Structure formats: C-alpha cells, structure tokens
Amino acid sequence: MKTEDIKALISRMTLEEKAGMCSGADFWRTKAVERLGIPSVMVSDGPHGLRKQSDKADHLGVNDSIEAVCFPAGCGTAASFNRDLITMMGETLGNECQAEGVSVILGPATNIKRSPLCGRNFEYYSEDPYLATEIAGALIKGVQSKNVGTSIKHYLANNQETRRMSSSSEVDERTLREIYLAAFEGAIKKEKPWTVMCSYNRINGVYVGENKEYLTKILREEWGFDGYVVSDWGAVSDRVKNLEAGLDLEMPSSHGMNDKLIVEAVKNGTLSEEVVDQACERILNIIYRFVENRDPNAVFDLDKDHEIARKIAEETIVLLKNDGILPLNEEDEIAFIGKYAKKPRYQGGGSSHINSHKVTSVWDMVSHKKNITFAQGFNDDTDEIDETLIKEAIEAAKKAKVAVIFAGLPDAFESEGFDRSHMRMPNCQNELIRRVAEAQPNTVVVLHNGSPVEMPWVNDVKGIVEAYLGGQAVGGACTDILFGKVNPSAKLPESFPIKLEDNPSYLFYIGEKDKVEYREGIFVGYRYYDKKKMEVLFPFGHGLSYTTFAYSNIQVDKSSITDQDTVTVSVDVTNTGNREGKEVVQLYVRDVESTVIRPEKELKGFDKVELRPGETKKVCFKLDKRAFAYWNTEIHDWHVETGEFEILIGGSSKDLPCSKTISVQSTVKLPVTYTMNTTIGDIMEDEYAKQYIGELMKGSMLTLGDTEQDSEEEGAVSKEMTMAMIKYSPIRGILSFGTGEISIEELHSIIDKLNKR
C-alpha cells in the first residue's frame, strides 16, 4: 500500500483505534480494525528457527509451538564467517514464515558478548561488532528477500540476563558507538530490517524505550531506519514516554490499559496526536508490506530444511585442537562417550526454543557400525560424579583405539532468564575427561555449549572440537567433521579466556543491584587480551582445518589516502595441503601511533574462500574511513587521526603473516579551545599557535636554554626533566616564570586571538 493510501486510512481511524494499533491484540498478533479492513498479522520468535505457538502463548518457550526446524544458534552461525551461508539460512526461515503466515520473525539477536557468563550468549553472535553486524545483516537479507520482516534485537546494550528488566547499563559515549551501537549499525543501514526490538534495560539511567536519542535521533535520523520499533515483551514502563521517544508497537497486549493512557494524553494535550499517527503509519506500512506480498506457493518442507540445517551446521563447528588425531578412520575401534553422543544439546533454553520435528545425534549416524561402542559417562541432570558410569567409560576407552567424549553445558548452566555464575563445565564431565584421557592417550573432546568454557584438561587430550549449539542436524554434521567427510572451516567468533577472571568485564559484570558499569570501555574480548598481551586458551578468529593455507603477496592500490578515499587491499591465499578446504581470511587494522587510547588492532574485513589443493585465489577488501576511525566525543562523530595504519591479514587474530602500512590524512580539523590552563606542550603542537607562544617564552625560565651542566649540583636538573616541566606547564606559567614583560590581560588577548582564528 502506498504511503498516501496508508495516511488516508489513518485519517479514517478513531483516536481509540489508533491508540489500539500501538499495542498487540494478544501475545503474538497485532490488532485488526475490521470496519476499515485492517488485518491482524502474526509475529513469532525465531533467531534460529520458527517458534510459532499453536495454542497457549508464552514468552519463555514453556508451552508447545508447532513442529519446526532448529538451525544452529547464533553462537555457531557467527563461527561460519560465511555471509552467503547465513543468507541462505535466512531465505529458508523466510520461506517457512510465508508458509505459516508469520509476518515478522523476531531476530537476529545481535548483542555483544561482553562476558562469557551471559545466559543468552548462545543466541548472540560475537564479541566483535563488525562480525556481529555482518552476520546479522546476512540473515536479515535472506529472510526479507522472502517478503517477511525481521526484528533485529535487543537494541541496546542488553548484555546480561540478571535484572534485565530494571538494570541500567552505565556506558560512555565512545564505547556505545564503537562496540554496542556498531553491532546494530551496519546491518540496519545496509539491510533495512522491517522492525527493531527495543531492549528491557536502561542506559545511563533511562530506559531505552523512553530514550529519543537512541530510538529516533540515531536509529531513524542518522541510520535511516524506516520500519517500526517494537518493545521486547513486557518492556514498556511508561507508554506515553515510549511513544514520544519512538517506540511504536507495545507487545504483548496491555489489555487496553496503555491504549487508554495514550487516548487520555492526546485529549489532555500532553501527547500530540501526530505522534500516534506516525506510529500507526509505521506499523501499517509493515503489515501491508507482508499482506500484499504473500506467497501462496510457499511450503514448509521439514525434511528438506533439516538437510539445509545440516549443511549450515557443517560450517559452524570449530576445530580447536588437533594433534594429528583427526579425522578419524571409520574402520578403527572407537568409543563414543558421553550422554550428548545420543542426546545432543543442540539449542538453548528460553524464547528461542524450537519444537524440533526430529533430532539427529552422532550415535544415530554410527550406531550400525560394530567397531564403534557407546558409554554414557555422565548424567547432565546432576553435577555428581557417577563412578559406575566413569568406570564403564574408561573400560570402553581402553578397548578402543580412540575415545571421543561428547561433553558441554547442560540447560541448567546456560539459558535465557539467568546468567552463569562461573565458566566451568560440570565437575562430573571434567572428571570424566581427565580420567578417560589418562587411560586412553588418543582422546578427542567434542563440546556442545553456547559460550566459552574453562578447559583444565586442554593439554591432556589430542583433539578438541567446538560444536557450539549446532541445531537439530548437528549429529550428521559433527560425524562428517570427525570422519573427514567435511573439512572443518569455522572460526571462533569470540575469545576463549584461560579462566573467567581474565575476562575484561569480570570485576564489574552483573553490577550492583540495578547499576552495571561498563568500566572496560571499548576493550571487549580480543581488544583487551591483545592490548594486555595476555595469553588466551583460544584466540578470536581461531579455527583449524584438515588442510593448510599460505598467505602471500599483500597489495594496496594506494600507499597514501585521505579519510574521504577508499583503499583496495588484496592478498593471495593458497591451499598448501592435500585436500579441498575453506579458509576465513581476516583483515585487521592497527593505528601505528595514536594520541587516543585505541585497541591494538580491530577486525575490519573478512571473507571465506574455497580452495582445491594447490589452488591460489586473490581475496580483495575495500576499506573506507570507518576502517581507520575512532569515535571522537569532542565532535560526536567518527574521526581519523592523521598517521600511519598497518593492515594485517591472516587466519586468526593471532596469526597475521601479511601486513602493509599506509598513510591516512585527516581532512577534518578538530575544534580547539585554549585557556590559561592549556599546557604549553599542547599549544606547541599547533603550528599556528606555536609562533605566538614561542615568542612569549623567550627569556623566561620556561625556555630550555643550555642544559649541559658542569657541576654535580647543576647536573641534578637534566634536559629531560626541563623539557617535561615545560611541556606540561600551563600557559599561565609564563606569568610566574617569565620576565614580567607580559601582563595577564595581554596573555588573555593572545589566547582569545588563537581561539577566534
């Protein structure tokens, strides 16, 4: 429906009907206005599968939903580093929505993984905003290509489950821009999601849903978002303030209570009816975008989509360690140990929980083979060590050539609604791994978890496979990786610290009651570990393959650019092994010398390439201003500092064999205001100001003069000491240590002149 037609429709609605349009009819549907032919449409949970509830509705996945297909969770899909693959996943989800009459699927979940403890990390993509926004954008692109909307969430700075409906994320402007807003920005600007879901929490004391800065100024005016903003379920605190800030649709239904508040506010003049009209226009625009583009031929083919889920899962499994033990030989005697071999943990708990129409385990794939045995090893409904189960596992491992232990985190350890209290796996599992590895040196561990875990046994096993939460087809994908039918190609979208205490947010995570301070600032994940030169268990971007890759011939098409230019960077990647494989080529940028505090390096590009043995491909990246910029809080904009920047390319954040340095010239002159307290060193960096101040300093004690000393007493005042004292002395020091030839009025006059140029 055209904009003018929607406006005309709104003009025919009563105030009560317009207010009613701004909240749900029930848990999942918008309101209809039958007399005007306005239909009701359905939204549904679904970052990694369609959770369309067929009967009683709820938010946390307690009640049954329709049978559907569970794809790998966000923790895994980000590990693919494959935009095309995730776009295909989005297309599949979009088609399922068309078949089921769902207008908007609630996802992707794009929040930054600030801490490994966040209970909902399994849904989120990364600790890095560039990777998060690129993967989110790929999913949005796929879903919306089927004329179904997405709802990118949870906007903004929603990084823990504890007190999520009342806590205030205390974050500075630069950190918000470079880390937490950036995770949403690229996807929203490029892919235009139909809706944005507002988070529960406050930012710096104000609920996001009541903050016009984030919902209107940044989201709409700066980024160009043109859909509607929907509340997270139950996130509305003050409906009138929400509406004024830019929160259009309240979900679920308020049973008419908040509708009445909107009507009253318009009638008493505290709310403009134009604000209500605008919200209705945004909501109706999305409703009709779906209604007018229904696909009558869409079919939800569960088995077909299961195979697509398996294909996606193949690229979400990260090979963390391989001391020559993988891939396995299918003819060898092998012991599969651990409950997750038969009943894998393949998805997280909460609102994204999918009612999978079937689940394939690794045991389903190999149970027909007589050379592969099974031992349960542990129970995941308790953390108690079961000696009988462990002894059975040890015996099975001793009889085999290789033991593969399927372990990880049970539902009780990570889920929506609560945060983890530690980063450990269950004691019963750690003990199982330790003792099996002691009995059988050829041990491999396969992990099913949504976020990093500590690995006290990391040096005791020969292979570690991070399967994440791989969806309902994880068994087939995992089996193919273990036996080499598929070459692993995933990379870690997050750092695995050695221990929880190493994480930069450790001291402040969860906060004090309703206040959570983000004191680590921009140093999230690898940005912190790199800056501190800290060892990690496995670094961001790490992931092994059954083949090897070599990088060479890095080229830049310009050695010097301005911040208004782009530069094209290319590198040759060669498969130096004996089997076909895919490599994730990662590009990082480092500011060689910066006057502002910056990370050691930041991810600014990635691409995934498939190479046959011996094949070489050239991979190209185009970098613009944002690749070199930081957020300058003086000008409230992205800014590039003139200087040298190193471009680093390789296979992980710790393996970057190729580099080139280019010069970037800023075209922006930062505003400067001098005062009597500005240091001489800061003024002397300004060529224009330097000529005036230099003259004033002649003959004063602030002039360096001859610092070569003859006597031992005079040698106590070194040249370095004198220079430092001058550099950090306020300009008013000329009055105290000068010759007395300049007055305070004259000095003020010079400073005024410098400020007015």
Q: What would the principal axes of the Cα set say about the shape? A: globular
Biggest pleated-sheet summary? 6 strands, mixed
Instruction: Please tally the helical runs, counting DSSP H or I stretches of 4 or more residues.
Output: 22
Compute the number of structural domains: 4
Descriptive account of the structure:
There is one protein chain. With 757 residues, this protein is α/β, with parallel strands linked by helices. It has four domains: 3-291, Alpha-Beta Barrel (TIM Barrel), CATH 3.20.20; 311-531, Rossmann fold, CATH 3.40.50.1700; 549-665, Immunoglobulins (Immunoglobulin-like, Sandwich); 680-756, no CATH class. It contains 22 helices and 27 strands. The strands form seven sheets. The protein has a six-stranded mixed beta sheet, covered by helices on one side. A hairpin with a 2-residue loop joins β7 (202-203) and β8 (206-207). α1 packs across α11, α4 packs across α5 and α5 runs parallel beside α7 (182-191). The radius of gyration is 30 Å and the shape is globular. 51% of the residues are buried. Pfam families: Fn3-like, Glyco_hydro_3, Glyco_hydro_3_C. This is Glycoside hydrolase family 3 C-terminal domain-containing protein. It comes from Variimorphobacter saccharofermentans.
